[in-house]
Amino acid sequence: MNLSALVQRRYTTKRFDPQRRIAEPVIEQVRHLLRFSPSSTNSQPWHFVVAGSAEGKQTVAKATSDSYAFNQAKVLDASHVVVFCARTSIDDDHLQTLLTQEQQDGRFANDDARQGQHNGRTYFVNLHRLELKDAQHWMEKQVYLALGTLLLGAAALEVDACPIEGFDRSILDRELGLGERSLTSVALVALGYRHPDDFNAQLPKSRLPEEQVISLL
Ligand SMILES: Cc1cc2nc3c(=O)[nH]c(=O)nc-3n(C[C@H](O)[C@H](O)[C@H](O)COP(=O)(O)O)c2cc1C
After folding, report:
1. Among 66, 143, 165, which residue has the most ligand 1 atoms within 8 Å of its CB, making it the best to mutate?
2. Which structural domains are found in the chain, ordered by start?
3. How is residue 12 annotated by DSSP?
4. Which among 102, 184, 197, 198 is least buried, having the fewest CB atoms inside 10 angstroms?
5. Is 140 a known active-site residue?
6. Collapsing DSSP states into helix, strand and coil, what is residue 47?
7. What percentage of residues in the chain have a pLDDT greater than 90?
């Protein structure tokens, strides 16, 4: 696969074809992409809500009224909308859950390896929790890695996408009951297929020149 062509081909879809749905096997791959995204210390401080039903998308669209109305049709006309959520705390229970999963998945040759992984992860988590006091921001940064993974992966699957920060987090958190699950919404990605009249599909890409954003040593 030619990645240069792929990053040129992917673009933010501003108008979706409401008649076209993503086939279930492709959505399975989308879920796989999300689950296998990398995160610092494999902390996976996330949850993804995939809205594929009309009711589900209506619920998500409640967070795109007023100031965010410019995003509402994207949510409603997309085939599926992924709500990217971050945990609101990274507690010892979560650290134990991660460790148990890694053990089950065969990551540790012995107890020392297991303890080493736990100590390393706890170090970074405590750095953000106790010293830098930016644990929420740190977790949300991990969630954005999954967002980037999905944008590139969707292009590889020939699915169009629109990343969306323009929505009301507090409305969506309430509508989806995220607070009760110790989660908060961070971003959305609408997925589907472009409408033939999507103006953005015709526009050239615009990026700062390579020498401005990349230095070679
Ligand atoms: C985190 C993030 C949030 C974004 N939020 C919105 C949004 O709310 N609505 C929208 O139409 N586009 C949104 N965009 C799309 C960007 O404007 C777009 O990615 C950028 O202009 C580059 O264009 P391209 O994606 O077509 O290459 C968002 C993009 C990212 C990465």
Report:
1. 165
2. 3-90+144-199 (3.40.109.10)
3. B
4. 197
5. no
6. strand
7. 100
